[in-house]
Amino acid sequence: MKAIRGPLVAAALAAACTGAAAPPPIEFQTERAWVRVVTIAQGLEHPWGLAFLPDGRMLVTERPGRLRLVAADGSLSAPLAGVPEVVARGQGGLLDVTLDPAFAENGRIYFAYAEPRGGDTNATAVARARLSAGRLDELTVIFRQQPAVDSAAHFGSRLVFAGDGRLFVTLGERSARGFRERAQDLDNHFGKVVRIEGDGTVPADNPFVDRPEALPEIWSYGHRNVQGAALHPLTGELWTTEHGPRGGDELNITRPGRNYGWPVITYGREYTGLPLGEGSAKPGLEQPLHYWVPSIGSCGLAFYTADRIPGWQGSVFVGGLKDRLLVRLELDASGQVLREERLFAELEERIRDVRQGPDGLLYLLTDSPQGRILRVEPL
Fold first, then answer.
1. Which of 12, 99, 189, 373 could crosslink 145 through cysteines, CB 3.0-4.6 Å?
2. Can 46 be counted among the known catalytic residues?
3. pLDDT at 7 over 70
4. Tens digit of pLDDT for each residue in 187-210?
């Protein structure tokens, strides 16, 4: 993959850094497609989650605690009123956002955030509200991660509605020793994916509803920090990406009742370089579909199903925070990863979110104090 117009890369980076007019499109020749990357909106402070409204506008979260509407011309609304207080510390803040499956009828949105719980403690929470003109109304917190702790890391927070209307919520294990080991226990929400109804109640067919020692909303466990999640377009299964430590970022098919191993098994090491856990495999613990050593800082996940960029149809896209790139994964007919292609490193942008838009194009959020919404278009 190469930038076709190299000088434009430098110009675009300079414009993005100085807060000038939107940088010009940048053209790339990739292995399967010739594309250009266009800045749709800019001036967002650490944008985290993106959702498309039926009228063509977008909702975007900013980690310090702002929710904005983005018009088709890229103009940003004032921050919407009614957003609850967030813990904007470390990795915490206002995080993912998604629409209710019946948004056209009820106007509801859902969002995840780092919620203050008293003293220095905090945890991930999920709220729903009705989107009104310039504000959020009828806000209700439908889920609270338990327990709350004093940590500024690993909030998880991706939100995905399944085809049956149930909501998946990804939850980090809060990072520190003493917390992360509890990702293996079912009496807490550390390192879990949970599945709830739209009102926060527990579906009767969740995998642990009949186990008294388990929290009934748990769907899967043994995760580290899941920050990418999407439904497979054919099977409807939940696929996720999670951060490893020093190496060991994972792509998983996240199935009910399964244990994904953290911190017992991992392909990563401690940040000190020392070994971690009991190796990379153990009976009864799930193996990733794909993993990265060293880490790319996997964040955001999208299946590309449209035909606007035919060479990419059927690919999976994963954002990279640490390596400042976008990864394209090619799958075979059985869903196994055949190969990966690394894209757009010339942009030098931390890719926080990846979405396929209703127009069949790919949209990216860049994580920086002057974050952007980028659109990837065919040439």
1. 189
2. no
3. no
4. 999 999 999 999 999 999 999 999
Can you tell me the distance from the alpha carbon of 226 to that of 7, in angstroms, rounded to the nearest whole number?
Answer: 36
* Mean pLDDT, the chain, integer: 95
Exactly one of 154, 189, 223, 290 is catalytic; name it. 154
Residue 177: partners with Cβ closer than 8 Å, 6 or more residues away:
none
Instruction: Specify the pairing of strand 371-378 against strand 362-366.
Output: antiparallel
The three state secondary structure string of 87-106 is CCCCCCCEEEEEECCCHHHH
Contact 230, 160 (CB under 8 A): yes
pLDDT digits 0-9 by tens, 307-326: 999 999 999 999 999 999 99
Ramachandran class of 104: left when φ > 0, alpha when ψ lies in -120 to 50, beta otherwise: alpha
User: In the beta sheet, which residues pair with residue 298?
Assistant: 320
Domain boundaries, the chain: 2-378
1 — pLDDT class (breaks 50, 70, 90):
low
Q: Which long-range contacts (CB under 8 A, 24 or more apart) does 83-88 make?
A: 83/136, 84/113, 84/115, 84/127, 84/139, 84/141, 85/115, 85/116, 86/113, 86/114, 86/115, 86/116, 87/114, 87/115, 87/116, 87/122, 87/152, 88/63, 88/64, 88/114
Cβ atoms of residues 40 and 374 within 8 Å: yes
Contact indicator for 80, 109 with CB cutoff of 8 Å: no
Cα–Cα distance between 193 and 122 in angstroms, integer?
Answer: 18
Amino acid 2: pLDDT: 58
Q: Would you state the structure tokens that stand for residue 92, as one six-digit string?
A: 């915490």
Q: How many residues does the chain have?
A: 379
Q: How many CB atoms lie within 10 A of CB 373?
A: 23
Q: What's domain 2-378's superfamily in CATH?
A: TolB, C-terminal domain (2.120.10.30)
CA atoms within 13 A on the CB side of 50: 34
Is residue 95 within 8 Å of residue 48, measured between CB atoms?
Answer: yes
Bridge partner residues of 28 (DSSP):
3, 35
